[in-house]
Write a structure and sequence with these properties.
Elements lengths: L5 E9 L14 E6 L2 H14 L6 E9 L2
Antiparallel strand pairs: 1-2, 1-3
């Protein structure tokens, strides 16, 4: 599938523990959509660097087919 048919989101936040299964309520973040993966990756890097001192905070890039 071409990137033109995709949208990208950054999702995550602070998790209860290093198992990364449950987010701490109120820390959830959803950023986007981004039209291209490189824009999402740049924003993800910035968010990851800003929270690198928190070992329970994690973000990932999710993609979905644009309508």
């Amino acid at each position: 599938m071409s990137q033109a048919n995709m949208r990208y989101w950054i999702v995550g936040g602070e998790y209860e523990d290093a198992g990364f299964e449950r987010l701490v309520t109120g820390t959830e973040k959803l950023v986007g959509p981004f039209a291209d993966k490189s824009g999402a990756e740049q924003a993800w890097r910035e968010m990851s660097v800003a929270t690198r001192s928190s070992c329970h905070t994690r973000f990932t890039i999710a993609e979905e087919r644009a309508r």
